[in-house]
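Lab meeting notes turned into a lecture example. A postdoc, R.K., suggested we walk through two folding results consecutively so the class can see how the record format repeats. The first protein's sequence and structure tokens come next.
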Amino acid sequence: MRDPLFRLRIEDLTTSNDAMARCLQLAALAAKSEVPIVLLGETGTGKTLLAHAIHNSSARAGRPFIAFQRLGDQRHVA
């Protein structure tokens, strides 16, 4: 069974943070788009949850969700 958090839509997400509110506005625009998107950020910041919310809010919500996770970005290795 899928985690219920991954069934959320953008309108289900709320914030009092101005930067995150802008992120959700951009996510709503991305959901209306037909182009692939890339979400970048630190581990544990909710990128996967936001990606699912964008997908679930899009016209493709009934189609498979495909995620590519890039692990071990070499630019950050000392």
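The second example is placed directly after the first for contrast:
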Amino acid sequence: MANWHDRPATAALYLAICLLAIAVRLTSALPTVAGSPCEPVCADAGDLVEDVVCLDADYQNLENGRAFRECVSCQLNSTAVDTAKNETDVDYGLCM
């Protein structure tokens, strides 16, 4: 019986999935609408993979928790809109 790596199509699919996962990880900073007043706030908030905290207390006690909270708070109160992409900061704040 052949293993998955013996089948070129399956091996190529696994390679593509791995590369996509790496690309997503490299571009996983907290998003904002281009030109938003939240851009500098969210730039300091890290990314969704490494910097989001889980415990309520960590949103007060840890630097990355406070940065994430400030980013989402900014987004939820923002009026920034990207009409070309039909995106808003509020959309990003709700979907994180």
